[in-house]
Design brief:
The structure holds two protein chains of two kinds. By secondary structure, chain A is mostly helical. Chain A is built from 22 helices and no strands. The radius of gyration of chain A is 25 Å and the shape is globular. Classes of the chains: A mainly alpha, B mainly alpha.
């Protein structure tokens, strides 16, 4: 990091705090603090939803994912527009008209207090686990790349987020999300243009796409049918739709965004705009990863992108294993580079025969590069590194710090910190809202003055901020739990989706049947998790269907399950 | 007291006249995106 990078980074963070404090003025009633007085326009909500959903690890990891596995991850988002249409037609008008602060509050209106409490508990547990890691994940990557202490990084981000979130509530969160999203988009465009400009003169943009495609990095659509395969067209459309339904329909961190809308129409537009913008945006981020791959065809990449692990496997005692591997790797890289240059040359001369031959050599060399990298990862494990080691999260930042010019590095780091802040502020704000509205106000102080709940919300926000920073401080002891937290979400979303589907579409189902349905749904999801290899995207489908089937069965066989809490049918 | 579910009207969208038409447009947009992604994959495979 050079002085210009620091200037860009500090300037970005300062502007976020200043803008957040400016926008948060007047958030002095519960309605304004938690729902922005229902004054938000659709574009602010849409950008806020996108910013909350896009965490730092999305940018760090997605680009690396594309470098390693190609662009097929984009299919994960294909189900989102279908989900957004369904939510716009159902959940948005229902939540708005019910005049609720949280999605779970609606469940008490529709079912009973215990179903609301169960859903709130599931949300607090799942989102509470992930909020600490939202801070920790980028901090540990920045720690490895720059040597910054990860606790100091989480503390700086945490204090920044807490200052503006406590002060202005949801209004500040939404407007700073907008600002952060604009920084993110600008940073990504600058990063892509810079990468393309760094390619060798004789390699055009179209050549670069052919080289990425020939190595399987532009595989945006794959049709293979495999239940264990996370990313193909079918899992993306069906599993992705159920995941998006769960996330945007049942997770308070998202629901609260569109509850701030001026009207039902504005909230619907925000969701539909998000649906339309998200796929191109993810495509763009993945494409950056594919272009980083092409860049590294002409500049030799390290065997392992994580610097500390790359140094570990070069220790003298590992030389008998490392040196032959490094030699094979360098040889494969050189073969790949020469084949790529020959391919580009033949393409420019329209020499079909040589083009085909060069392409075959290029692909064979790529296989050797991949094999050497796998052996490098195995060597990391064998030398005491993390089990199942992958350096995906380090590829993009390693490239950024080594090759991007001064100022752009600061901008990319600002993008990553802005993404962390936008995700965590939304999470903290929603955790505080559920804590106050669904727990504190519902079970402890039902009739206090409005100002009392504003103060309680500020305290809850500060609590969840402090909790997140403290939890992130133990991140280095969590190891592979970072990955586990991704699973935690999918372990609970299906049941939440099921209970909301019951609430919206099955009028005959009452509280007890819904409550038992959620428990049965959870049992089914955990059984799938523990005893099968089904991809986690399908858990939402399984959980949702089991909740509905169980509640309907109970309603059919048990008159008690069909009764309302006061005993009437 | 349960809220009045008809108190907040569902006004029409600013374009295309009715929400079902907007939904169809979004689904058509998705189909177009998937087709473009497929053509992109094939063009550079």
């Amino acid at each position: 990091m050079r002085p210009l990078d620091w200037l860009v980074l500090v300037g970005s963070l300062t502007s976020i705090i200043a803008y957040g404090l400016y926008r948060g003025r007047g958030s002095n009633t519960v309605d304004r603090y938690l729902l922005a007085g229902k004054t938000m326009p659709w574009y602010a909500m849409a950008l806020s939803i996108m910013a909350t959903q896009a965490s730092a690890i999305t940018f760090i990891s997605t680009t690396g994912q594309s470098y390693v596995d190609g662009m097929r991850f984009v299919q994960f988002y294909f189900g989102m527009p279908l989900a957004m249409v369904a939510l716009s037609a159902t959940a948005v008008p229902i939540f708005h008209r019910a005049k609720v602060y949280t999605a779970y509050e609606y469940l008490e209106n529709r079912f009973d207090a215990k179903t609301r409490a169960l859903a709130s508990f599931i949300f607090l547990m799942q989102r509470g686990l992930s909020v600490g890691l939202t801070f920790y994940a980028p901090a540990i990557v920045l720690s490895v790349i720059f040597g910054w202490p990860d606790r100091l990084t989480t503390l700086v981000i945490g204090i920044t987020v807490v200052i503006y979130t406590v002060t202005g509530g949801i209004r500040t969160v939404t407007w700073t999300d907008v600002q952060q999203m604009l920084i993110i988009l600008f940073g990504l465009i600058v990063a892509l243009v810079t990468i393309i400009l760094l390619l060798p003169r004789q390699v055009s943009f179209v050549d670069a796409m052919h080289l990425a495609g020939a190595a399987g990095k532009l595989n945006a659509v794959t049709f293979n049918v495999d239940w264990n395969d996370r990313y193909n067209l079918w899992s993306g459309l069906i599993g992705g739709m159920f995941l998006a339904l769960s996330y945007f329909g049942c997770d308070q961190s998202q629901v609260q965004r569109y509850l701030t809308g001026k009207s039902i129409a504005q909230s619907k537009l925000s969701l539909l705009f998000t649906a339309m913008a998200k796929i191109p945006m993810q495509f763009f981020i993945l494409f950056i990863g594919a272009m980083v791959f092409v860049f590294y065809i002409f500049e030799p990449p390290p065997l392992v992108f994580q610097r500390t692990e790359n140094q570990r496997i070069q220790r003298p005692e590992l030389a008998p294993r490392y040196q032959p591997l490094a030699a094979r790797y360098q040889d494969a890289l050189e073969q790949r580079k020469q084949a790529a240059l020959a391919f580009v040359d033949a393409r420019h001369r329209r020499d079909q025969e040589n083009e085909t031959g060069a392409l075959m050599r290029y692909r064979q060399a790529q296989l050797k590069v991949d094999a050497a990298r796998q052996q490098g990862a195995a060597l990391v494990e064998a030398s005491g590194g993390e089990k199942g080691f992958r350096d995906t999260n380090y590829i993009f930042l390693s490239f950024v710090t080594r090759y991007l010019p001064s100022g752009i590095v600061g901008l990319v780091i600002a993008v990553i910190l802005a993404a962390t802040m936008s995700s965590s502020s939304g999470e903290i704000n929603s955790l505080a809202t559920v804590s106050v509205v669904d727990i504190y106000r519902r079970h402890y102080r039902r009739d206090a003055a409005d100002h009392h709940y504003v103060t309680a919300s500020r305290i809850a926000t500060a609590f969840w901020g402090a909790y997140a920073v403290a939890f992130a401080g133990f991140g280095n002891r969590l190891g592979s739990l970072i990955e586990a937290v991704n699973w935690v979400g999918s372990l609970f979303y299906g049941s939440l989706l099921g209970v909301f589907a019951l609430a919206f579409f099955f009028k005959q189902v009452k509280g007890t049947a819904a409550f038992c349905g959620v428990l049965a749904g959870e049992a089914a999801i955990f059984a799938a998790f523990l005893f099968t290899h089904i991809s986690f995207l399908w858990y939402n489908v399984i959980g949702c269907l089991v909740v509905i089937a169980t509640a309907l069965a109970l309603t059919a066989v048990s008159p008690r399950a069909s009764r309302t809490p006061d005993g009437s049918l | 007291m349960p809220p009045d579910l008809h108190e907040m009207p569902d006004e029409p969208p600013p374009f295309l006249g009715a929400w079902p038409r907007v939904y169809v447009a979004v689904v058509a947009y998705l189909a177009a995106l998937i087709t473009l992604c497929y053509l992109f994959t094939r063009a550079f495979a």
